[in-house]
Amino acid sequence: MSITIKEVLRMKEWKDCRLVAGEQGMDREVLYIDSMEVPDITPWLKKNELLITTGYAMNSSEDVLLDILRAMAQAQSAGIALKTKFFGEITGKIKDEADALKIPVIEVPRDMPFIDLANPLMKKIVDEQNQKLKFNKDMNEKFLAVQIEGGSFREIGEILGELLQCRVLVADSKQNMLCCFPEEQAEKQGWVTTGEFGEKIICEKLKNCQKQGADDICYRTEGENTICSLAIYVKNRCKGFLYAVGEQERFNELSAIALRQAAVYLALEFSKKGLLEQKEYYQDNNFFLDLISDNIQSEEDALRRARGLRWPSFPYCLAVADINGFEKVIRGKEEEEIQTIKDDIIQIHKDVVNRKRHCFFVGNKSDSFHCLFTKQADKEEITRCMEEIQEQVKRNFGVSITVGISTTMESYCGFSKAYEEARTAITIGKKKGTEKICFIEDLRIEEGFFEMSKMETFRNLAGNTLGILEEYDKKHGTCYMETIRVLTENLGARKETAEALYLHRNTLSYRIRQIEQLTGYNLNDPQTLFQVQIAVKIYTYMNL
Fold it and tell me: How far apart are CA 290 and CA 292, in angstroms?
């Protein structure tokens, strides 16, 4: 739709004018016409301006015209139409410079009045601009009417498709199709594939036509069709993509306006969708936090809220994910940045578990994240889900996650117990290694020691048994606590203990004698060794 130098020269009023240089600049857009007959016109040059002049003020100076051409290139002017009646010959040097700068130089017949050239061109420019304004107004009214009536991705896609007479597809940021116009074209044209759970995922030929820049339209030829794509942004974050597919002639300046206008209204839809999801998230998360804090008055109250939120029936299983070293990730960041990181981690959880379809809730509390699984999710599936979450969080943020899994819950009053189970599993998991998925049902013995570590009687037992060794290690730089821990893990076996500690047998024997001398224990006595083993386990959890 833009008027270029090429199109100007095709006008009947300009048919006697001749392009003498700057052919590679024929696609320069013309938005203004100006006639100047002053010695120094360079300060007044504008972008997309076609300058018409007799050249009288140039005084037949080759250098003056060369300077003007350079200034026009810098100003991104459209070109120059010059009468040679006063200027004289357009030299080879001028032509070479114009060619190098890609500035079109048009020779105007000596006796042609400028008004005969300028008036029809100005009318054409004005008509063109009016057409754009009308198109924009009509299109905006259609989109606005849809928005006022509630709007939807499908309706916006339909309006755009009818305007441009092309096929339209809208996808979210994860490449899941949200709508297609006409509907039957999506699979018929091979634009989507079906995922594991029936979701429609856009194919590679559309995905390959993408740019992650706002307001940046990407064009790509695919067979007989042209694919146009535009990323949809909300608050500087890509929320999805708009695709238009059709014959090449369907896409011009007006279509670009339509695509960008549609993108604005799609951004509003994504924003509305995000607000709705956020509202639902806060309702779900607040309910969950009330459940684990025992802030629900009765099972009936909990059931009533759960029905309002459309939670499925029991049993449930709770997975809690703790980020290890989260303080390093957020160090030096503003509160808004921290919240964005948390939102991204929550989204990772949602993206993973939504594909599995057996998780109905993802929430967070401080730097821990929670997933509720239904009875359909077995131990293997929960493990796969959480492992994938671990992998993605580590890849995106460089931190590991320790996951604790509760036993199944049969009622809402069991939430606080399940949460404590998951937290206990995390605590034990961190002692075993930071990046673990720990089911509490597999850690019952360790859980017993953890609970014993909270009781004064057992804390005194462990402290009296091992406190002497810990103090001695701190004072003398020895490793007697580590030695006795490995010794008890190997049930007193010297050979295995020495190998685990990378010690010679004699060195280990010396350490054991020193430990016995300090504590008064006989570590060859099975009963004593058993007592020490229990003390070591309890002591492990005392300082957490």
Answer: 6
Which letter does DSSP use for residue 171 in this model? E
Q: Backbone phi, then psi, for 134, in 5-degree steps? A: -65, -45
Buried b (16+ CB within 10 A) or exposed e, 301-332: ebeebbeeeebeeeebbbbbbbbbebeebbee
Residue numbers of the domain that contains 430 = 293-442
Residue 314 lies in a domain: yes
Measured CA angle at 418 (ends 415, 420), to 5 deg: 110
pLDDT by residue (tens digit) across 432-445? 665 688 888 887 77
Q: What is d(CA 158, CA 186) in angstroms, rounded to the nearest whole number?
A: 13
Confidence of residue 385 (pLDDT cuts 50, 70, 90): confident
Confidence of residue 207 (pLDDT cuts 50, 70, 90): low
Residues 520-524, mean pLDDT to the nearest whole number: 83
In this structure, what CATH number is given to the domain that contains residue 28?
Answer: 3.40.1390.20
Residues 458, 532: one domain? Answer: yes
Task: Render pLDDT for 259-303 as a digit per residue (tens, 0 to 9).
Answer: 888 888 888 888 888 888 888 889 999 999 999 988 888 889 999
Q: How far apart are CA 148 and CA 165, in angstroms?
A: 24
Is 352 in the same domain as 243?
no
| Contact of 247 with 164, CB cutoff 8 Å | no
Domain assignment of residue 322, yes or no: yes
The share of the chain scoring above pLDDT 70, in percent, equals: 90
Total count of domains within the chain:
4
Local structure of residue 4 (DSSP, 8 states): B
Q: Which residues contact 129 (CB under 8 A, 6 or more apart)?
A: none
Q: Are residues 328 and 258 in the same domain?
A: no
For residue 24, tell me if it sits in a domain. yes
What average pLDDT is seen over the chain? 83
b/e per residue 446-474 (b: at least 16 CB within 10 A) = bbebbebbeeeebbebbeebbeebeebee
CB 220 within 8 A of CB 239: no
Place of tokens 């057996």: 358
What's the pLDDT band for 246 if we cut at 50, 70, 90? confident
Tokens of 207: 């995905």
CATH number for the domain spanning 419: value is 3.30.70.270
Domain endpoint, select from 227, 246, 274: 274
Of 246, 274, 302, the one marking the end of a domain is: 274
Instruction: Name beta bridge partners: 374.
Output: 316
Q: What would the pLDDT profile of 120-131 be if each residue is shown by its tens digit?
A: 889 888 888 887
Residue 85 lies in a domain: yes
Does 233 score more than 70 pLDDT? yes
157: CATH: 3.30.450.40
Please report which helix (H) or strand (E) contains residue 279, including its range.
Answer: helix 253-292
Six token digits for residue 395: 């890849």
Q: Count Cβ atoms within 10 A of the Cβ of residue 277 and give its class: 0-12 exposed, 13-18 middle, 19 or more buried.
A: exposed
The pLDDT-based confidence of 197 (bands split at 50, 70, 90) is low
Q: What is the pLDDT at residue 543?
A: 62
